[in-house]
Structure formats: C-alpha cells, structure tokens
Amino acid sequence: MSTNLSVPSVTADYALRVADDLSANRGEQERVRSELDRLQDELIRLEESEQVLTKMQDVLGGAPKQTAKQGKSRKTAAVPAARRSNTKTAAGKSGAADGRKAAKKSASTKKPGEATWLELTTAHLSGQSEPRSAAEVSASLTEAHPERAVQVTVVRNALEQGVAQGLLERSKQGRSVFYSPVATVPVSSVS
C-alpha cells in the first residue's frame, strides 16, 4: 500500500519539476530572443554607419574600396565554416534568420520622409479600440502599406520600442502579448 501512495507523489514531483524546467526553458528562450533582436538592431545600425562612412570616404577620395572589401572578408573568416553551415541549416528550418534578413533589408531601405516603424505602429494602435498582437499589427500594416516590406520581427521591435518610450502599453493574456496606446488621463481644471 505504501508503494501506491508514493507513486502519485513521485509522479506529482516529476510533473512539478518538468513544469518548472519548461517554464525556465521558455523564459530563457525569451531572453535569448530579446538579446538576438537587440544584437540584430545593433548590427543594422553598424552596417548603416559603414555605408555612410564608405560613401563619405569615396567622396573625400580616401582609401580605395578594396579596404572595405577586406574588412568584409575578415568578418566571414571569423566564423568557422562548420558553424556557418550549421547556422544556415538551422535558419532554413526555423525561417527566423530569413525574417531577420528581410527585416534588416526593409529597415535599411527606408526612404527619406517615410514614417518610421514606430510611427506607423503607434498611429495604427491609436485608431484601435482594443489591444492588438504584433502579428495583427503587421497584417494591418501590410494592407495599409503594400509598398513597404512589413516583417513581424520589425513590427515587434517597434512595438517594444514604443513600450520602452512610454508610448504603448504591453499586456499579456496567457502566452500572448498585446499592445495598446498609453491611456492619456485628461487634466481636470481646478476652480
């Protein structure tokens, strides 16, 4: 009889441990995704700076273009071939790398005078009556701006930027994240 009592207890203990491990795993995945997004944004900024500096160098008649090409070849050589091929394989399976490449391309091809992703997302959400997910905002922006390559990753980054700047609020319902504009409280006049 004591074995019957201990089996449910052991099963419950294992179930609790598995649930805790699963929760920790998901938390770590989210942390790594956030860090990856931050690093991707930083890489985009650095590449844009490189383009500007290269153009300035060309205008000023500085060092030949070969120097810039040598810098790129060093970047490729820094990653061993085995890791590069594994990265391509993993990216092909997940599609995340392709999305980030498209996000980088769409972010770096913004024409002067075009609204930023932050401006587009906050404007869209300000016209909504209820919170929206990043996927819903992306779908709406795709319809509203067919000339721009809308990527969910870019929209999510813009939404998180809006949260960081206090323009938007983030709310969670289960595992889903929704965004809405910050509710402004009207200032009442005291007589």
UniProtKB/TrEMBL annotation:
Keywords: Coiled coil. It comes from the Bacteria. The keyword Coiled coil applies. Residues 57-116 are annotated as: Disordered. Residues 22-56 form a coiled coil. This is Regulatory protein.
